[in-house]
Amino acid sequence: MVSCFPLQRHRRKRATPWIRDLFAEHFINPSQFIAPIFVSEVPHDGGLDLDIFPGLRRYMIEDLPALCEQLQSFGIKAIMLFPVISEDKKDEIGTEALNPESLIYKAVRKIKEQNYQLSIMSDVALDPYTSHGHDGVIGALHTKVQDVDNTETVKILSSMALLLAEAGADFVCPSDMMDGRILDIRNDLETHGYTQTLIASYAVKYASSFYQPFRNALGSKGLKALNDKKTYQMDYRNSTEALSECMFDEAEGADCLIIKPGLMNLDIVSKVKEKTSLPIISYHVSGEYVMQKLSAYHGYLDDKQSTFEIMHSFIRAGCSNVITYSAIDICKYLKNE
Question: Residue 100 maps to which CATH number?
Answer without folding.
Answer: 3.20.20.70
